[in-house]
Amino acid sequence: MGDLAKIFKAYDVRGVVPDELDEPAAEAVGAAFAEVTGAESAVVAHDMRESSVPLSAAFVRGARSRGVDVVYAGLGSTDLLYYASGSLGLPGVMFTASHNPARYNGMKMCRAGAVPIGGDTGLTEIRDRAAELLASGGALAGGGATGALIEKDLLQGYAGHLRTLVDLSGIRPLKVAVDAGNGMGGHTVPAVLDGLPIETVPLYFELDGAFPNHEANPLEPANLRDLQRAVVDSGADLGLAFDGDADRCWVVDERGESVPPSAVTALVATRELAKHPGAVIIHNLITSLGVPEIVREQGGRPVRTRVGHSFIKAEMARTGAVFGGEHSAHYYFRDFWYADSGMLAALHVLAALGEQDRPLSEVVGAYSRYHASGEINSTVADQGAALDRVRAQFAGRGEFDELDGLTVTGSGWWFNLRASNTEPLLRLNAEAADETTMKAVTDEVLAVVRRVSE
């Protein structure tokens, strides 16, 4: 077993099994989770990885050793775990490594009501207590009564709840290609879409944590090719791609073209503002300028945040925002305990398309106003020096903002350059009113960054 400090990240736990994360560690984390949260009961779910069943079972043993009753939901998506935490009023843990390769696994933790547990809200304490238990061999030495184990299938409750949040009763028949990437979408999507006038063209619905067809990461364009081809070949109205734990959803239009998550954010924001006039909409600083523009045009109040689900969720709770969107295809809903759900965002897209007769490309065209580079990563040994060079390069050419990394906004263009929290990478996102300017800004920033890295 490796160092727990290595696998406890800012928002979750993630590491290679069994070298960095094994059953004794999971058991110790279960006991520590029980102690730190003070929970009397908790809910646990897991994804389809081969290691998820033994690891989650070990966590349950640890939690029960502290007298905690555990509701064991078994297979589920991460947003199913959030539904369980919210609807049951229990803290919860999801065993998943999302889109990471098969050798990884991890945990996403929340308090009752799907309130996230991050580095500054309990995760560090859980890590430190688990390390103490491992060092002393005391994970099972609770000394009190063992908590109960309650197995509960929550899939139908989850599906039914999502269907109450989006009215799909009047949509026209649609054909939808869905790429589950051998991840949890193959388990949840059929339950959610059951009974709707939707013909599904399924790709890779077989649960397989080895990901035999492609990585379950729709942010990588290569992983969308099979879906894009299936949409065109089948004449589907749209395509949906989910990541491994199915909390993110990427949309493809009827031409097989990617729909930027910023356009989906603006579309869903518009629909939520129709229900909640004047409400707050959260967007991170890498979403398109079109998002706050459209939110204001619809009478809403846009609020800009740093990148990352803990920042989004905290700001949503602070402001009472009805919806939040990120460039990474994470979408957050007040009506879903401020948690993110790719499936719920997908239902909004299906409703928006099915309520009228135009193709999706026309529907989302109104929400795509700028040309974006997408996220471009550069390996950089000295991130600070590279950022300093970029500051010098663009001095006097725009407004500087350091809310999260470096954002420079000029006339008709902007870019953001952020350091990765976990890798020696700088991440660049650029956008402009026209493609020529966007490419020129992107190339100039990359030239400076990569010259520094050589």
TrEMBL record:
Its EC number is 5.4.2.8. Pfam families: PGM_PMM_I, PGM_PMM_II, PGM_PMM_III, PGM_PMM_IV. Gene3D superfamilies: Alpha-D-Glucose-1,6-Bisphosphate, subunit A, domain 3, Alpha-D-phosphohexomutase, C-terminal domain. Transmembrane segments: none annotated. Keywords: Isomerase, Magnesium, Metal-binding, Phosphoprotein. GO terms for molecular function: phosphomannomutase activity. Residues 6-131, 158-256, 264-370 form the Alpha-D-phosphohexomutase alpha/beta/alpha domain. Its cofactor is Mg(2+). Residues 375-446 form the Alpha-D-phosphohexomutase C-terminal domain. Belongs to the phosphohexose mutase family. This is Phosphomannomutase. It comes from Nonomuraea roseoviolacea subsp. carminata.
